[in-house]
Amino acid sequence: MIPSLAFPAIHASHAGIWMAKNDANTGEIICRSIGKGEAISLVCDTPTIMLNTPAIAQRLGYADINGLDILELFAFIHPAQFMVPTPRGLARKLDLLPNNIETGEVEEHINDDDIAPLLLKSAQKLLSTLQNPKWAERDGSWNSAQSLSRLKWPWGAVIVKNLPKPERAEKWLFSKLSEWEEQPPRGKPRTITLPHLDILEQLDELTGAQAEERPGQRILATKMGDIFTPRDGRDGPNMLLAEAGTGIGKTLAYLAPATLWSAASGGNIWISTYTKALQRQLTSEAKRAYRDHENFKHRVVVRKGRENYLCLLNLEDALQGGFAGRAAILAQLVARWAAYSKDGDMIGGDLPGWLVTLFRRNGTNALTDRRGECVYAGCAHYRKCFIEKSVRASHHADIVIANHALVMVNAARAADNDQMPKHIIFDEGHHIFDAADSMFAADLTGQEAIELRRWILGPEGKSGRGSSGRRRGLAARLADISSYDDEGGRAIAQACHAAEALTADNWLSRIAEGQPSGPFEILFSAVRDMVFARDESSNGHDAGYGLETELTQLSPALTDAIPEAIDQLEAIVMPLQKLGKRLEAILAESPDWMDAMARQRAEGALASLGWRIDLINSWISLLSRATGMADPDFVDWLAVARVEGREYDIGIHRHWLDPTKPVSEVVLKNAHGVAATSATLKAGGDWDDAMARTGAHHLQNKVHQFEAQSPFNYAERAEVFIITDVKRGDLPALARAYGRLIEASRGGALGLFTAIRRLKSVHARIADHLARNGLPLYAQHIDPIDTGTLVDIFRDDPHSSLLGTDALRDGVDVPGRSLRMVIMEQVPWPRPDILHKARRLAFGGNEYDDRIIRARLAQAFGRLIRRADDHGHFILLSPSVPSRLLNAFPSGTIITRLTLDEAVEKIKNPLSIAPDLRHINNQLL
Length: 925
Prior knowledge:
- By secondary structure, the chain is of the alpha/beta class.
- 45% of the residues lie in helices and 13% in strands.
- Helix 2 (53-60) links the parallel strand 4 and strand 5.
- The radius of gyration is 29 Å and the shape is globular.
């Protein structure tokens, strides 16, 4: 039994501050309201229990707080377990929600003045787990607690005091992780055709006997099955474009033929999404096809980019002294999680998203492979690597759930055609254009250049002393090879010498001071000067935006700087190419001096060299064309990237005018069957719009099209209000509108903004008032927590509301009464930057703009009605919405132009839509 804690607990919200502590005499919990000054004094002088320390620090206006965060305690005791990081989420997870005295039912609502005592009880219950013999995550806890205590983690001494020492010494994390095993190559799939009747039987199996029959879903399933028919020509796939309205059940409609074809042919299918939220949803839906858990683990694999996964080599470096302070504590908690994680996915996987933000992301990037420095087979943990496990598992899985960018990367970098995905289903297909725009761009920036320098040279100066693992640079990593192979050694030395010309630490400061050092800093200084001289955007003085200008009629300084930069890039890439050839030769010769470890290091270096060489060549091409004739297929510009008035990068950029061109060449034409589906594939336009957004218009063969209308009765379930009396640019009026609408709905509102500055202004004006009325308001870019967790919190509390930007306009799935109103501050006009203006000119002028706006409106409206019993209001705070844009909303939706007062009254008394909406609204009021 854990004795009563002597520590106080504090809770601070927009509504006030409360402190609770155990009475020394009676043992009862005493709670009282306190002022901000007393609260700051308390947390500075006394170890204090709190939930989400950064949020408490923000609300107290005092950043230097290091309390006993109960979320960190939960992460230690229950690693890899999901929990909504709110008082209610904590209480639900620990079974501490009170019962209603009258009904005996669990009471979900928790008052502000009950939260501080709840934190004391929660800490007590979590600590009591330490002595529970059935504690599932006990293994490894003793060693971890000892390390955390030495690092002076606030909870460390408490845990060590109450955690029984194990009878046997615990194994180190890296000796416990399982290893992947080599498997024979997967054979090519058999050529088969799926009978429609078999597809429908499989669909019935997935949906279940009691499921309501959906005619649109059944037709869609058979149409999807046709993409698995053997193709007739070599230059394009069997391709289907399918707009399936919300509620059709498109996921099971394509899983039915996909799982059937895979089982019958022995092939695999890649299902690609744009958002991590849909990846999680698809994983859950796929369990219907593979109900046995062990079978499911082998048949369905989630693939993400390397930067999403924990790197074991980086973790080992961190645990052995590579990190200090709070970053070292985070590394220990991540190690606890790694022992229980199912796949090592740190971004959107089973690592709690809130854990990273508790440490202000201190050290997180260094625990993943964000810089592409993997040494592959040269790593001591290669056979236990989470990334390698995922890659190998995907080769033998039936269903690979990936994302658009990864599909394009794999296709572009595939060593041969057999490695490319041959059957692909693009869900969220309306985002293929956006994903391709990022994937096939060339960006030569100061930050990219310094990353290349670090990869070649390793850490420099004091920070580089004693560095281990991949951070040693090429010369140190391949020291044994260079000592035996003179030509390879010379190539490494030449590359390292040439890389010294790249941007170095503090490059931005030197440029800002007018003292650039070296050819690349001179290049970026000339870029910066030209941008500041020529930028004419309306946002030039808005700190929320970067500055840019077209890459044309170059200044003399930039004209002079470019040839020198090209020469330096060639001086880097040529020895890297020589090194690659030497490594290939050495691996083929297998000389006597090459032991197993040297071979692994050589193989790892060779794997990394390829795409680094491609990157440098793309920069050379970009600079070479900068002084020549413009290429009509590309848009080139110069930019200074800024955030909140601070410059953080400078660069030269090249994007495809139509990025679906490389998609069609690299991905589509090499595939045998492709489907692109979405609820908003046409977004109120026609099939030409869908063809253009997916790259299908570049194919010579016929592209099939199918549309299934949503079964939802939007006339009874949703209304669109266009508010006519909120003047654009009037921030106080905008804030009042948001506040009144959220109060009228009693929360459940998703507010979407096109500018972070306006979001922050509105939040500052209304958050306190709403909180005092029991309506919590959360916001991106304000609350110190990741977007995914903010959505989890919003989903969990039907009285809360959430403000955000583009990331919340698409991919947010909040069914039920937690989301019953979507508010857009204005028509989502495209920002008229250089890239947009070029595409607007090429793709239809005003109609191109209209297609983008209709798509954004359709995506935002799609957040509102997620299932048949959902209901609510979609509100545009814009007095002049062109009528031509209103076909973005589903047919039958009631659209009304009215004043704010009228809208508030209708929301409070929704007489025009479903009776059950009126009932729910009355309950909330």
